[in-house]
Amino acid sequence: MERRLEVNRHWCKGCRICVAFCPKDVLELDREGKVVVARPDDCIWCGDCEIRCPDLAIAIVEEAAS
After folding, report:
1. Whole-angstrom distance, CA of residue 19 vs CA of residue 13
2. Which of 8, 17, 54, 55 has fewest C-beta within 10 Å?
3. What pLDDT, on the 0 to 100 scale, is given for residue 51?
């Protein structure tokens, strides 16, 4: 199973909640004030970002490995 964090930039309002709660500092805001997955290899898939995003702009996507 392969995982990735998917961010819907149209829904993100840059509130920084996901950035603040990420235990591994995987997320940060870009120049436009939108969240980006800056360090994907550090993600431990805890789901805090997905659960706490008030706009449902972040999702952990799981796909079968090909």
Report:
1. 12
2. 54
3. 97
